Amino acid sequence: DGYDDVIVGAYRDASYTGKAYVWHGSSTGLSYDSGDDAGDADWSIAGEGTNDYYGASVASAGDVNGDGYDDVIVGAYRDASSTGKTYVWHGHGYIQKGMFDSAVLDVDCTCGVDWQSLSWNPVVQPDGTSVKAQIGTSDDGVTWSWRGPDGSSTSYYTEATGQAIYSGDRGKFLRVHFIMESEYGTGGAVVGNLVSTHTPTVTDFTVSYGKFTTPSVFLTWPNGGENLMHGENYTITWESEGDMSATTPISLDYSLNEGSTWSSITSGTANDGNYRWAVPENQNVERALIRITATALDGSTVQDTSDGTFSIDPPEFWQTGDDGETADTEPPVITMFPLGTATAGKPVTIRAEISDETAVTQVALRYTAGDGEPVTVAMSPAGNGVWEVVLLPTEGSLELAVIASDGTNVVETEATSLEVAAGAAPVAPASSGSLFAAAALGAVAMLGALALRRRPD
């Protein structure tokens, strides 16, 4: 092939029986697969007996038989009680083992890619031959990680008809490393046209993949500064976009020590923008956090954490005045914003302005749909004394009331009606190259409960 090869002798192999190995040269150096031992050799042959010291001396012999191919010479100086013996092995233009790397495959986009399966042709190889492969992935096209189907560097793809690519191979760039081997051509005379009858080949290969939008997720409530009651139910809300895996790609955790340790709320829930959380009993902390994790289509994850800490049943919630002794006699004043119109299936924002002589600690919206049971959801501060929550209503009538507490006084507005018109029939989404699309409406409050308790007299 125009490249020099290397022959190596290992005369102490197998109790000094000895063995000789040949590695072929190539445009990138010596050929070898991902292993780190002599099993990578393109050709090898052992001595005939123990203590022969076969391979103690090795060299190229030139073209001894004049067939146009170089031969090798191997010495076994202790053969036959140190009588010694020399072996000449004829080259024959037949490669017992070969390998090549494919061109780099690049999805050429800023999206994520889910590498799915590898197959190649021909599916059937000649008797006594085999083809195997590994997948290399890279984020920059320079540093490559080579793995087989189980994710290890010692496993190989062997099913030409198609085999799933290891889920951890997520790089933007991909290439395939093929290794072709034959049981023939292990030395000695060559009979027949082995090049055509016993040579494994790869004429083409296929890598299937799916492009997807890398997801992002943003926690919207609780996001810092809230006061929650232990043992009560609250609705955690978030916004997200991008393509996520399966049907339960969202995991939620909470921390009671500002992120030093975490406990699971749920290890898998739907990406519908909200989750009802039962706050743990008997907690009295001021440094709580929520963490949300979203799993992408390729198995990678993205996270977001509350921007600031929130309190669970904090002591000052029950105090009145700076010293805890001065009575707070002025309740909060609630002014609801005009409701406007609402359409089923479309988010509607409910806002109210709350003022108080001390500080408003909690605000909630209580709503009833038709003849259903009342549902209470927490409202979040939007700045300048305004609190808000987003609902995703169904067709019909909603009765709404806003509740506010300053830690001493609890007030509730009179119920206000909101008529929800029927929404348009859903339209099937246009076909796209992504395999799965998941999107959530931000801060959608579907279900939840909030208990507002008055300080005992």
Oligomer: single chain
Number of strands: 34
Q: What is the percent of helical residues?
A: under 10%
CATH topology label of the largest domain? Immunoglobulin-like
Mean of all residue-level pLDDT scores: 79
Q: Look at the structure and give the CATH class of the largest domain.
A: Mainly Beta
The residue ranges in which pLDDT falls below 50 over 5 or more consecutive positions are 185-196, 314-324, 426-457
| Main sheet record | 6 strands, mixed
> Could you tell me the strand content as a percent range?
35-45%
> How many H/I helical runs?
3
Proper CATH architecture of the largest domain? Sandwich
Q: Name the CATH superfamily classification of the largest domain.
A: Immunoglobulins
How would you describe the shape?
elongated
The CA-CA distance between the termini, in Å, is 96 Å
Q: Whole-number radius of gyration?
A: 36 Å
Label the structural class: mainly beta
Count of separate structural domains: 4
Quick overview:
The protein is mostly beta strands and 457 residues long.
Please render the helix and strand layout as text.
Layout: E1 6-10, H1 13-16, E2 19-23, E3 43-46, E4 54-62, E5 71-76, H2 79-82, E6 85-89, E7 97-101, E8 105-106, E9 112-121, E10 129-138, E11 145-147, E12 163-164, E13 173-182, H3 194-197, E14 204-212, E15 216-221, E16 227-228, E17 233-241, E18 250-255, E19 263-269, E20 274-278, E21 285-295, E22 301-305, E23 310-312, E24 333-336, E25 342-343, E26 348-355, E27 362-369, E28 375-378, E29 380-383, E30 386-391, E31 396-405, E32 410-412, E33 416-421, E34 444-445
Parallel strand pairs: 16-23, 25-33, 30-34
Antiparallel strand pairs: 1-2, 2-3, 4-5, 5-6, 7-13, 8-13, 9-12, 9-14, 10-11, 10-13, 15-17, 17-20, 18-19, 18-21, 21-22, 21-23, 24-26, 26-30, 27-28, 27-31, 29-30, 31-32, 31-33
